[in-house]
Amino acid sequence: MLHLSQTIKAAAVLGVASLALAGCSLISSGDAKRDESGRPTETSVADAFKVKVGDCMAQPSSDEFQDVSIIPCEQSHDLEAFAAKNIVADSYPGQSEVQAQSEEYCGAEFATFVGIPYDESTLDMTYFYPSSQTWKQKDREIVCLIGGASGAAVTGTLKGAAK
Question: Which stretches does DSSP call E strand in 1-73?
Fold first, then answer.
């Protein structure tokens, strides 16, 4: 399963929540239904480890999850994956360090993707990150996610939204 970071923006408080993957079961949901270019063609349940930059999805139902609903970005959705990278470390650096690296990376990538810094934006940000359990399964990936203001659903990409 993954862990999800819940993002909360309040007047004076800027919070970034995170989602962590939890251990996968032997039965995987597989990948979303995609066209030849890799774009999702219809709403489908997929293994959370199959999320790709550019994918849009429904908000996971809990902070720890294994599957996500991938939705074509042209349809109403909660989150969009906008950046990803692997953590470079020989052993699991601990949840606090993984979250710190995730927040730093996703915050920097947010400005590039949206066009303004996160702390000036009305949009929400969260991320998937490896847990100690998924690290043992070779999971090293941070996936940055963007969503509408105060959790509002969006249609289309938020790339260049500058809001």
Answer: 2-4, 8-9, 14-15, 17-21, 44-47, 56-57, 64-65, 67-71
Residue with tokens 């940055």: 144
Closest alpha carbon to 80 in 36, 39, 135: 39
Residues 6+ apart with CB under 8 A from 101: 87, 93, 142
At 129-153, the pLDDT tens digits run 999 999 999 999 999 999 999 889 9
Nearest to 27 by CA among 48, 5, 47: 47
Token look-up 């139902």 returns 61
Distances in Å between the alpha carbon of 24 and those of 6, 29, 79, 118? 21, 10, 22, 32
Residues 6+ apart with CB under 8 A from 78: 57, 58, 59, 147, 148, 151, 153, 154
- Among residues 12, 84, 30, 21, the alpha carbon closest in space to that of 54 is found at 84
Query: Which stretch of DSSP H or E encloses residue 73?
Result: none
